[in-house]
Design a protein that fits this description.
The chain contains 2 helices and 4 strands. It is of the alpha+beta class. The protein binds adenosine-5'-diphosphate (ADP) and magnesium ion. Adenosine-5'-diphosphate binds next to α1 and α2.
């Protein structure tokens, strides 16, 4: 959500949906799309996409937030996905409702 405020434009929409198996939390914002070639590595540590016009604030972060989100999602057997086009940038965290016990 902080990324949507910092890097996006317009209203930020947060949507949580769940079923018996999975829980998904999606955060959407507007603004310039993230370049397609930057998407696959966006959650690698110390990675930032090229700054685009129309962003709310200058990019001043360290490029660690999405990496930490990915680590948390992975630790819960989940994943984080991003889609970005002219209409919206949407980050989705997809988690299993129940995590198998690891011993
Ligand atoms: N909601 C968003 N809209 C547009 N770009 C985003 C959004 N979230 C992340 N990004 C891009 O992904 C990069 C990496 O994000 P992050 O890991 O949170 O690092 P930081 O915010 O410190 O730059 C950001 O620098 C930005 O280019
Ligand atoms: Mg950030």
């Amino acid at each position: 959500m902080a990324n949507a405020v910092q890097h996006g434009c317009g209203p930020v929409c947060v949507e949580a949906r769940g079923d018996g198996e999975r829980v998904r939390i999606a955060v959407s914002s507007g603004g310039q799309p993230i370049p397609a070639d930057a998407l696959p590595k966006l959650s690698d540590p110390l990675t930032r996409a090229a700054p685009a016009a129309g962003r709310r604030r200058a990019a001043t972060g360290m490029g660690l937030d999405l990496y930490i989100c990915r680590c948390i999602a992975n630790a819960h057997d989940g994943k984080i996905e991003v889609k970005s086009d002219e209409r919206a940038t949407v980050f989705t965290v997809d988690l299993p409702r129940f995590v198998a016990c690891r011993r």
